[in-house]
Amino acid sequence: MAIADTLTFRPSTAPAAVPAGGSPPPSTSPGLIALRLWVDEVVALTKPDRVHWVDGSAAEHDALMRELVAEGKLIKLNPEWRPGSYLARTHPGDVARVEARTFIASENEDDAGPTNNWVAPDEIRGTLTSLFAGSMRGRTLYVVPFSMGAVGGPLSHIGVQLTDSAYAVASIGIMTRVGTPVLREIENGAPWVRTVHSVGAPLAPGQADAAWPCNDEKYIVHFPDTLEVWSFGSGYGGNAILAKKCFALRIASVIGRDEGWLAEHMLLIRVIDPSGRAYHLAAAFPSACGKTNLAMLRPTIPGWRVETLGDDIAWIRKGADGRMWAINPEAGFFGVAPGTGESTNVTAVETLWGNTIFTNVALRPDGDVWWEGLTDEAPPHLTDWRGEPWTPDSGRPAAHPNSRFTVPAAQCPQIADDWETPEGVPLDAIIFGGRRATNVPLVLEATDWAHGVFLGSTVSSEKTAAAEGTVGELRRDPFAMLPFCGYNMADYFAHWLRVGQSLRFDHAPRIFQVNWFRKGADGRFLWPGFGENARVIDWIIRRIDGKVPAVTTPIGRMPRLSDLNLDGIDVPEADLEQLFEIDPRSWLDEADLTEEFFATFGGRIPAALTSELSALRYRLRAAQV
């Protein structure tokens, strides 16, 4: 079979090389015929021993988990502590997302942009064909039809993953809606995205399998022009669960660009005030900036409640009423375990009561799990993530720093009753945040949509400890999308501007920036964070309602200190002033860094954003006079 025939899936009449089990219903619909032909072609390339079409039933899931336990690939946890839960231990070389091996294979290199790894499609198709040839020998190829968003929903999209990893199948079953109802959508003509995954570890007859099969050579390749994803070599997380970052962000951002909507790395919450009025907020935070904690916030202000709608991804479209509507396209949470505990995020801990797949955490002697941060004190004896004995004196973490949990979102104790509504929820505000020790105030409101896009384009965290009055080295992560945008990020900024131009000013979500991490000259955090962040959300909502004024500053609109609800907490006046202090000289230095960042896009940055930068400099210089 020629390379082009293999990877562009030209129709073939060749029958499947192996008999299929759990086959889709017979159909003469063009959609299912195209799906079956594509599966046949991948089977002919990868040569699995068996093919199984996943129906998504509970019986199928239970059988799959029993098989993984019997093969030594999962450890069943004590049902007394974690019913329906399992522990997976990966190969030590397969523990994280492999960004250096993640590629955008667009026809034109400029369409990938400087923040993505570009590779020529023809070149990488040849490489992938060689790698995938016979890669599934001795294994089962699973056909996993999945829906991002409610099946058949107006904001939903469908994909099919072909994989030889039963662990990936089980994880996809938690993170998406899987099975026969999705096939019916394809049968009825719904478009679908093709994704293929192999751990790259074929088995010879009689060869014993590894507990965690994988390959040292790894590729995660996205084809935005043909809406495909091919992943080879890794069995871990987002490298193997292709519905997640690969489809839901990199490919979906391309579809959103072409169709006029936004695929975003954003949490989604409903905030309910003491009177019972509900507001919907989406928020983008880079890693280690409190995203999951905000998604599951428990306000400290009496009478306020937060309902979780999503913790990681939001798809946002303009509705018939002119407002922006958002859904969480996922069905589960794939969260980092270390640092998740009762003192930081009790909601997340309560979510993990059962039906959870843990990966690379530690195992307690009683058959439960543990990780750093779950409790204040470590248990005296554990088995660490590598399967080795561990005590608090071992001098190494018991759980891998990137250890994970995969759990149904429906188990979250504060999940909204209507979190799966197909139409989504109307957005009132969009929030951007980074981890900044300097400069960026506790909360800031954009003056308009273009200014809000400028704020999103400059999201960053400080990599180095900042000296007093200086800006540390910045790790840029605009819109928290730097690793996840499937096309040129300058064009992504332009797309955000176009979306805003299609909205009436009074229908557009208000845009804010927050920073929970500003420090004083002594290195102390100035804001208590966690549940107290509800006090910032309270001000944001009162701004949306027009109940409080704002102070106009060179960088945007900020609250009057008297308008912040600080009842019940003790934040010294001097700390509050530092939280909102604006040093024009330091901000002009930051403007220079922003100009350097924009310059990396080779003149492709939209004029509206360079104008925002010029206007910022003008206001800062005027403030110095």
Automatic annotation (TrEMBL):
Q: Which UniProt keywords apply?
A: Cytoplasm, Decarboxylase, Gluconeogenesis, GTP-binding, Kinase, Lyase, Manganese, Metal-binding, Nucleotide-binding, Pyruvate, Transferase
Q: What is its EC number?
A: 4.1.1.32
User: What protein name is recorded for this chain?
Assistant: Phosphoenolpyruvate carboxykinase [GTP]
Report the source organism.
Microbacterium hatanonis
The protein's matches in NCBIfam families, at most eight in alphabetical order, are given as: PRK04210.1 (NF003253)
Function, as annotated: Catalyzes the conversion of oxaloacetate (OAA) to phosphoenolpyruvate (PEP), the rate-limiting step in the metabolic pathway that produces glucose from lactate and other precursors derived from the citric acid cycle.
Where does this protein hold Mn(2+)? K245, H265, D312
Q: How is the cofactor bound?
A: Binds 1 Mn(2+) ion per subunit.
